[in-house]
Design goal:
By secondary structure, the protein is mainly β. Helix content is about 5%, strand content about 45%. It is built from five helices and 66 strands. It has a 20-stranded parallel β-sheet that branches. A ten-stranded parallel β-sheet has the order 25-34-37-41-45-48-51-54-57-60. About 45% of the residues are buried. Keywords: Hydrolase. It comes from Rhodobacter flavimaris. This is Glycoside hydrolase family 55 protein.
Length: about 750
């Protein structure tokens, strides 16, 4: 490239013989003294070496000669100034190329404005002095000016003893940018625009200048450490050999190169690059996804989204982290923070702990445990000044002051510092926790967190943790959660695949392997469809624990088409601060259809479905368990359902709208259904026939209603005569209220088909 041609610029100063009025004896600025009519300057028309030239007598300690024309300085361009000089008589001076850097505001101070000096050692010998000036800090550049100057006044200085006479050939200024290969490749170099790469000078302006000049070309960042002092946005494609140093709060937005490998190269490491790339993902809208490009990132510490983006408090645009692997490297940084503290709880403020001792040491996201605390209760917010904590769920243990333990697990991806996050997706990412860390902590608030086609492998404690309502509408699709406790007996496991505090989650087509508990769900409107979770172990005749836990009474949820293996579906109200039944819905709104339930080597008292009221007075109103298959392998089980009376029993007098039918039982001792269809054979004539459906009725239900009584064949008396009168029934008979009597006007015998219910229909 030659800017005299491409930019139409005049670089070459006029010959001396055309007039000395444009040649200054000062800095070359307008109004400075010229050599026109000067006593120490004259034009020599025909020198044997130079032809027409300038003869100059040195009369000052630094004799200046500057062209007064404004020679332009363009970003990325390099100029070479050349002067040929010879001594004629008198003292022998020293010569150097000299310049004066200018912009619209005046002189640009602090720059190099002289070249290396050249000595005139004899008379008549021609000496050449030259220097290169340009914007970049490049090898071979004598005067690196950066992008502040817009033009310069160029010429020479004579130093040394006065009295010498020299002759000077016409000064040459030429574009030598091609020497630095500026346009021979399809890229621009940030050094050409003033970047120093010394880790101290703020090179942000140089990067911006390079970006402005790129015009479709790639920006190259050569070896070095480039300090970028504040947020920087680059539109052109960019390639890093050197690395960047930026303040934590400063963002780097690479509009045309937004992917993880580029950020890893920019910041000299995978984890640092991932953090800066995530920061940028939440900062601008040109890209909605961060592609890890199939790369594995070694994660040596929790990725705290709030810490890497301090100015971010909430975000509601769709963003995606996709296509890669996060691999946890062990270290003490993953150790739990455990604080034991005394706190006071009141059921009138069910989400708050007050008078919390040592509160400053209790972090947001800590799990709360102790007497009267349900599973997966977390600290949602901390008010140190007030000495109070906000909880993700109420406590069931009643009011009072108690000692609690607060355990803060460490997570690979931790969103707990944000107030709200909506529509964040993690797609096709494997999180290898390696038994060192938990995987994902959700923000306190948000909607539509989506985990899709992901693997969460060997979390130390938790897979996905909700500490508030950031799980609202959460989606988990086609994922696999692999426990770190697969060799631990089921009853000793403590891990949880995920928990939910809000409504309307969809858990679909996913696989969960040997967690302590697979899912703990609060809220309503959940759809659990097409999943496989299993929690068995290598124990013979082993105990089994809950896999799916519903933690409120009315759930309005469906469990459909799942493979439920060696675990219990447990239904509780453990987050109710006043767990006794009051003015509320009791256990209802649940549909369990089309599932395969399996147990292997289980104890006979194992059941697949358990209702566990934490207070008295509760009942079932609205439960459909139908078209499922229950199969016990290597050891039969007694029943498929039970009521866990650890805290309270159910009020069976209020059961209503329970449908348990069309299920298949293999290796299950007792068939259970509602309504129960009984065939009653009475061989000897009796006026009262007693029917005992109790074992068939679910959850120890009473025989509360009879839907129908149908005689099969003729009902006769002792004499064999037909009895045509209609019998009547009496329900809730026997000490357990599980018998029904059929009462005839006279002693009768024969066969009847009876449908008996443990509930009222509405």
């Amino acid at each position: 490239m030659n800017i005299a041609v491409t930019e139409g610029l005049a670089l070459m100063p006029p010959a001396f013989e055309l007039g000395l009025d444009v040649w200054s004896s000062g800095d070359g600025t307008a109004g400075s003294a010229t050599y026109l009519g000067a006593a120490n300057a004259a034009i020599v028309p025909a020198d044997q070496d130079f032809g027409a030239c300038l003869e100059l007598t040195k009369t000052q300690s630094t004799q200046k000669l500057r062209y007064m024309g404004q020679t332009p300085i363009l970003p990325g361009a390099y100029l070479r100034i050349t002067a040929r000089v010879k001594a004629v008589s008198g003292n022998l001076p020293i010569v150097r190329i000299a310049a004066y850097a200018m912009n619209s505001a005046g002189h640009v101070a602090g720059l190099i404005e002289q070249s290396t000096q050249v000595e005139l050692e004899s008379y008549g010998r021609v000496v050449t002095a030259s220097a290169i000036v340009g914007t970049g800090q490049r090898v071979g550049v004598d005067m690196p000016w950066g992008t502040q100057p817009s033009y310069g006044h160029f010429g020479i200085d004579l130093t040394g003893a006065n009295g010498g006479v020299v002759r000077i050939d016409d000064i040459v200024i030429e574009d030598v940018t091609e020497v630095f290969l500026r346009d021979m490749m399809d890229w621009v170099d940030v050094r050409d625009y003033g970047a120093r790469g010394d880790g101290v000078t703020d090179d942000r302006a140089a990067f911006i200048a390079a970006d402005n000049a790129a015009n479709g070309r790639m920006i190259v960042v050569p070896e070095g450490s480039y300090l970028i002092g504040s947020t920087l946005s680059i539109n052109a494609p960019i390639r890093f050999v050197g690395t960047l140093v930026m303040p934590t709060a400063a963002r780097l937005s690479l509009m045309s190169s937004y992917d993880f490998p580029t950020y890893a190269e920019a910041f000299g490491g995978e984890l640092a690059g991932l953090k800066k790339a995530l920061q940028a993902l939440f900062a601008y809208t040109d890209h909605n996804s961060l592609d890890l490009k199939g790369r594995r990132v070694e994660v040596t510490e929790p990725i705290d989204i709030k810490a890497l983006a301090p100015d971010l408090s909430s975000f509601s645009n769709r963003r995606v982290l996709r296509n890669g692997q996060l691999n946890v490297i062990d270290g003490t940084v993953w150790a739990d923070t455990v604080v034991t503290s005394q706190a006071t709880y009141s059921t009138s403020a069910p989400d708050t702990l007050t008078g919390v001792a040592n509160i400053a040491n209790i972090p947001v996201g800590a799990r709360v445990s102790g007497a009267g605390v349900g599973r997966e209760v977390y600290v949602r917010a901390v008010n140190v000044g007030a000495g109070s904590l906000t909880l993700s769920q109420p406590l069931f243990g009643g009011a009072g002051t108690r000692t609690l333990t607060f355990t803060r697990h460490k997570y690979v991806l931790d969103f707990s510092g944000l107030a709200k996050l909506d529509r964040f997706n993690i797609d096709d990412v494997e999180i290898l926790c390696n038994g060192e860390a938990s995987a994902i902590m959700l923000p306190p608030s948000g909607q539509m967190f989506h985990v899709r086609d992901c693997y969460i492998n060997a979390p130390k404690d938790k897979g996905i943790t909700s500490i508030g309502t950031g799980c609202q509408d959460m989606l988990i699709d086609r994922c696999q959660f692999l426990s770190n406790e697969s060799q631990v007996p089921a009853t000793q496991r403590v891990s949880v695949a995920f928990n939910v505090n809000a409504n309307d989650t969809k858990i679909r087509d996913s696989r969960f392997v040997r967690f302590g508990t697979t899912m703990i769900l609060h809220g309503t409107g959940h759809l659990i469809v097409g999943n496989h979770w299993f929690q068995g172990d290598e124990e013979t005749n082993g105990a089994r624990i809950a896999g799916l836990v519903f933690t409120q009474t009315n759930v309005q949820s469906a469990v459909t088409g799942n493979y439920i293996d060696n675990s219990v579906v447990e239904w509780t109200n453990e987050y109710d601060p006043t767990p006794n039944f009051g003015n509320e819905y009791s256990f209802g709104g649940l549909t369990v259809t089309g599932n395969t339930f399996v147990s292997l080597d289980s104890a006979p008292w194992f059941t697949w479905f358990s209702i566990k009221p934490y207070g008295s007075g509760h009942f079932i109103h609205g439960l459909n368990i139908s078209c499922n298959v229950f199969r016990a392998i290597n050891g039969d089980v007694d029943r498929f359902e039970k009521v866990d009376t650890t805290y309270a029993d159910l009020d069976r007098s209020r059961f209503r709208n329970i449908q348990i039918e069309a299920n298949t039982f293999n290796g299950v001792g007792q068939f259970v259904c509602n309504p129960v269809f009984l065939q009653v054979d009475q061989a000897t004539a009796q006026t009262v026939w007693t029917m005992t459906p109790g074992a068939y009725l679910p959850f120890g239900g009473w025989a509360r209603n009879v839907e129908s009584v149908l005689a099969e064949g003729m009902i006769t008396n002792n004499a064999g005569s037909r009895i045509s009168s209609m019998p009547y029934v009496v329900v809730e008979q026997g000490t357990a209220k599980q018998d029904v009597t059929l009462n005839w006007a006279e002693a009768a015998k024969g066969r009847v088909q009876v449908k008996i219910r443990c509930d009222n229909p509405n």
